């Protein structure tokens, strides 16, 4: 059996008016982008329903791509048939035969076209009866069926489909504005980026790199992580900030116990500047509460004090196990655990202050040429644009 189309389902319930139109438009645009390699495939809209028309294209690779689209709650391979009882019966039988491991089923008919002569209850019986007679041993279970056979009778044509494949949910990327993700080479920040994308933001990323204290491989690891995230986000601008001088200066002039606090404060100043230059309205980090010294509430207060920009921390409510398991699902884990050091680990103080206060941080920072250091780091930032359909060698520097 060859399916004709894939019926798409999105969380339209919470959306109204103008929002709904913009949401749909963005979703269609993102799906088109995701399916760009399949030349025959078309996306169509009919009576408020979105479909992927396969036009002869093999379905499995298309389904694989749809699994990575935010905004899709679910999708179902479907058959489009004439609105005639025999055609509906045959299509339902095909759906059942295509799901060989299912032991029970239930037909759910909907009659959007009220001029169709058979009511939905009667249609359920007639189609269910036909399937029972013609399919391999399978039974009806109206309460907990393993397979739902949906039949939608519409005026132009009817649609018959089985169980939903669960999608990523969330909002279409690009429907909620732009943010800048502070991307380290660790496990948490790529997951934070994924969760930010889930809320519909367009993602840019920034990484602080301290060559030669941190290696080129550490930088490549971050590029690879950003590249993995493009699977869900289309294209990602990655800003790589030269951070060596700043770290050296902090080491030379500031209390060792405050070095992480001050380093983070400077990262935020630079990130805010780059965010503003790029039209991003919030920063995103992989911070969570209480994991490490820099993530106590006191520490967050002292670090945050340098910016008014909202900082989103999508993994704050998750514990490490949950973050790791999501990292595995989205494919960043294996890259994150590669052993190349991050600038934070290289300069890790023996006893970082767990409750740093703002006054001390400011006094320490007064020993640095803050304005120059920030300006030069911003000016020296390297930008890469990574996109989903390109492999690494095609990404380019600006
Ligand atoms: N070199 C860096 N470049 C960009 N952002 C960074 C860098 N180092 C840390 N960050 C940001 O600061 C956050 C907290 O870093 P930290 O090392 O304390 O925590 P973490 O829980 O180990 O996070 P991760 O696993 O993402 O590294 C990171 O999640 C990331 O958002």
UniProtKB/TrEMBL annotation:
Domain of life, per lineage: Bacteria
Major location (coarse): cytoplasm
Keyword match tRNA-binding: yes
One Gene Ontology term from the biological process aspect of the record: thiazole biosynthetic process
Record's keyword annotation contains Membrane: no
Gene Ontology molecular function: ATP binding; CCA tRNA nucleotidyltransferase activity; tRNA binding; tRNA-uracil-4 sulfurtransferase activity
CDD domains associated with the record: PPase_ThiI, THUMP_ThiI
Limits of the THUMP domain: 60-164
Binding sites annotated in the UniProt record for ATP: 182-183, 207-208, 264, 286, 295
Keywords: ATP-binding, Cytoplasm, Nucleotide-binding, RNA-binding, Thiamine biosynthesis, Transferase, tRNA-binding
Enzyme class: transferase
GO cellular component, one term: cytosol
EC code: 2.8.1.4
Subcellular location: Cytoplasm
Signal peptide: none
Pathway assignment: Cofactor biosynthesis; thiamine diphosphate biosynthesis
A family per Pfam: ThiI_fer
Catalyzed chemical reaction(s): [ThiI sulfur-carrier protein]-S-sulfanyl-L-cysteine + a uridine in tRNA + 2 reduced [2Fe-2S]-[ferredoxin] + ATP + H(+) = [ThiI sulfur-carrier protein]-L-cysteine + a 4-thiouridine in tRNA + 2 oxidized [2Fe-2S]-[ferredoxin] + AMP + diphosphate; [ThiS sulfur-carrier protein]-C-terminal Gly-Gly-AMP + S-sulfanyl-L-cysteinyl-[cysteine desulfurase] + AH2 = [ThiS sulfur-carrier protein]-C-terminal-Gly-aminoethanethioate + L-cysteinyl-[cysteine desulfurase] + A + AMP + 2 H(+)
NCBIfam families, per the entry: tRNA uracil 4-sulfurtransferase ThiI
Role summary: Catalyzes the ATP-dependent transfer of a sulfur to tRNA to produce 4-thiouridine in position 8 of tRNAs, which functions as a near-UV photosensor. Also catalyzes the transfer of sulfur to the sulfur carrier protein ThiS, forming ThiS-thiocarboxylate. This is a step in the synthesis of thiazole, in the thiamine biosynthesis pathway. The sulfur is donated as persulfide by IscS.
Family under the similarity heading: Belongs to the ThiI family.
Protein name: Probable tRNA sulfurtransferase
